[in-house]
Amino acid sequence: MSRRELITRIQTESAYAVQRPSCIIDEYPLPRPNLGAVKPGLLVREPGQSVYWCRQAKPLESATALGQVNQNYLWNLPETMQAGDLILTALESTPALIATLEIAHSDEPGRLTFTTLATFTDPISVADIESMIGDKLPRRSQYLEDPLADKVLESIAELVEHPHPIFVTAGPCLPSAPSRANRVLGVAAILQRSKPGEPLACEICERDISPRPRIHLPQAHQDGLRWEIQDHVDEVVLLCGDCHQMAHQPTLQQLRNFAKPACPACGERNPRKVVWGMPAFGPDDDEFVTAGCVMPFGPPAQWECRACETRYLVAEFDDRPHQAWAIYGQNLQR
């Protein structure tokens, strides 16, 4: 049967999903995209070359920065890093994935730049590496001892040549916040679909979603199904916050929120109302944000963006009404 027919069968016949024949798992053909092979010999540490194990706590944002080769993103890198050091970046999804291998360069004194040697778009699980080396990898960012570094690089080379299946159970698709179980799907989708130097775009409105991509699973009842990770990733749609809300049949109140003024920093149109002073009622935290009793110098903010938390107001300027202005600290910026 076709892949779509198989998906429909799994969705409609729960018994088949629970009692999948073992032969299918044992001989599972990995439907991974061929996005460029890692060069032979690349995953070998030269004598005296250090390997830094970089763990990133924000998997979606970090995956976007890696896919776009964003040199300005904040990484867990030490000040003692030197030119020539290798950096293995692992993203704290569930399960954690190895994302890239990079090398540090020094183009000018006191400044390091990083070149990506390999992006592992074919997902490599940290748990698989730990199983192969028979040891646990650090849960924080640090330099690896030379014997451990060699074992890790050898294991990655083996998994690149002979990838292991990674079975993932999808979580519920929520417009308010991504399910923790779905972050790994977003990481793999972002690494596969990103292009260096180009912004990551919403697949509906084509707006830049690099600061905060949203993961959408369009298939009904997909949550709770245990599939190989690429089957889930093929279904993932990368959206902005507005389009993700619209994809989940918005309520009348949500439609009213979309009519509110757009955030001047990121363009989102779903802000919360800023309440100053001590309100006489218990405000709904989903619709209001309490700013406190101390009024700032200058005009106070009216709205707070749900996506980037920028506070802004709508004011008249040069006979042009309804201009959105952002407030950063005590400075007002257009």
Structure characterization notes:
Helix 4 (59-68) packs parallel to helix 7 and helix 5 (126-133) crosses helix 6 (146-161). The protein has three domains: 51-161, Roll (ph1033 like fold); 166-247, no CATH class; 252-333, no CATH class. Helices cover 26% and strands 25% of the residues. With 334 residues, it is an alpha+beta fold. The strands form four sheets. Strands 11-10-12-13-14-15 form a six-stranded mixed beta sheet, with no helix packed on it. The chain has a five-stranded mixed beta sheet with strand order 4-3-2-1-5, sandwiched between helices. Strands 6-8 form a two-stranded antiparallel sheet. A hairpin with a 6-residue loop joins strand 12 (303-304) and strand 13.
Q: Name the CATH class of the largest domain.
A: Alpha Beta
What is the terminal separation in angstroms? Answer: 56 Å
Mean pLDDT: 81
Biggest β-sheet: strands ordered side by side in the sheet: 11-10-12-13-14-15
Quaternary status: single chain
The residue ranges in which pLDDT falls below 50 over 5 or more consecutive positions are 14-26
Shape verdict: globular
Q: Main beta sheet: strand number and arrangement?
A: 6 strands, mixed
In short:
This protein folds into 3 domains: 51-161, Roll (ph1033 like fold); 166-247, no CATH class; 252-333, no CATH class. Helix content is 26%, strand content 25%.
List the helices and strands and how they pair.
Layout: H1 3-12, H2 14-18, H3 22-26, E1 51-56, H4 59-68, E2 86-91, E3 97-108, E4 111-125, H5 126-133, E5 142-143, H6 146-161, E6 167-169, H7 183-193, E7 214-216, E8 226-228, H8 229-235, E9 237-239, H9 241-247, H10 252-258, E10 272-276, E11 288-292, E12 303-304, E13 311-317, E14 320-328, E15 331-333
Parallel strand pairs: 1-2, 10-11
Antiparallel strand pairs: 1-5, 2-3, 3-4, 6-8, 7-9, 10-12, 12-13, 13-14, 14-15
Helix pairs in contact: 4-7, 5-6, 7-8
